[in-house]
Amino acid sequence: MSKAYIVDAIRTPGGKRNGSLSSVHPVDLGAFVLDALVDRNGFSAEDIDDVIFGCVTQVGAQANNLARNAVLASKRIPESVPAVTVDRQCGSSQQALHFAAQAVMSGTQDIVIAGGVESMSLVSIGANVADGKAAGHGQPYSATGINTNYGVDWFHQTIGAELIVEHWGLTREEIDAFAVLSHQRAMKARDAGYFNREIVPYVDDAESIDLQQDEGIRDSCSAEGLANLKPISNGAITAGNASQITDGASAVLVMSEAAVKRFGLKPRAVVHTMAIAGDDPIKMLTGPIPATKKLLAKAGMSIQDIDLYEVNEAFAPVPLVWLRELNASLDKLNVNGGGVALGHPLGATGTKLISTLLCELERRKARYGLVAICESGGTANATLIKRVGE
């Protein structure tokens, strides 16, 4: 089977809700990262076989195959290049990467761009629900079978996070402490320039936008400050220990060995192993645990073999219980902060985390990195990449 090489991985800075990127059309955000990949790598855009983008709330500005519209809005990619938009909820762009890698590994395609976009300021989460109710706050799943099987009419992410807290016996203090750590690590990484290679600053003179770094990092975040926040649903989860609403885009350039040689490019990593798993939709957010176990079994590796891991901080309890169940090390987890500090732009998060992980593997000269993301409905993607080169 052919190898799927990661030649490059980039992202925009994370824009705060109603912040610097809130006026940028998501199609233009997608076109921006597409053009940046072409400009940074000097290959023929006409030879791209497909563009696969993730997006969760596919309505309004994000409707009608956002990925194709991003190609049409691009300055570098011709209209002859096709594109498709996928929805695996919070793992959508991670799934896009899986599809891209599978296409290259199968030998059917040579150059695929995988990525994702989400403008959570312009298109609010849950806006694509038929009755307009926000997802996680009354979204109806009125199918008789779901009600029969699970005794509910809808699944609620915040309640799922609270159930995780209860099941694993976490305390509010533990959760808040992890949230503070996320901000501290992100602040340190930002100040040290660790994000410089992955971030392509968004500059748009026409709209007077000049966003160089992530907007969500709170330098003053403290346990005392978080302790004063009111719970979302009378439990331990607050706005301070949950991921931030964020606008952004990310993309990964995936190539076959033949394409890499044709354009004289130097790959940065290879997609080593991929897995996906389903889990309890009521707790909903525990999927990274079985997905990671499945991934490691497929790879014939243990968690101790992995140098770094990114487990999406949809809510702080998610990576905390993942650590416990995998017997993993906090020192290797989300070392430059996660969704609590850097934001979670839904459909863009998967390839965003890949870009962060890849850059940190290179900085440390480490070899194996793992990404796992929980997804609405109780599924999760897991991806293992292997850095190549010296």
TrEMBL record:
Protein name per its UniProtKB record: Acetyl-CoA C-acetyltransferase/acetyl-CoA acyltransferase
Domain Thiolase N-terminal: 5-257
Gene3D superfamilies recorded: 3.40.47.10
Catalytic center residues: C90 (acyl-thioester intermediate), H344 (proton acceptor), C374 (proton acceptor)
Transmembrane spans: none
Keywords: Acyltransferase, Transferase
GO molecular function, a single term: acetyl-CoA C-acyltransferase activity
NCBIfam families, alphabetized: AcCoA-C-Actrans
Record has Transferase as a keyword: yes
Pfam families for the chain: Thiolase_C (PF02803), Thiolase_N (PF00108)
Domain Thiolase C-terminal positions: 265-386
PROSITE patterns reported for this sequence: THIOLASE_2 (PS00737)
Entry similarity comment: Belongs to the thiolase-like superfamily. Thiolase family.
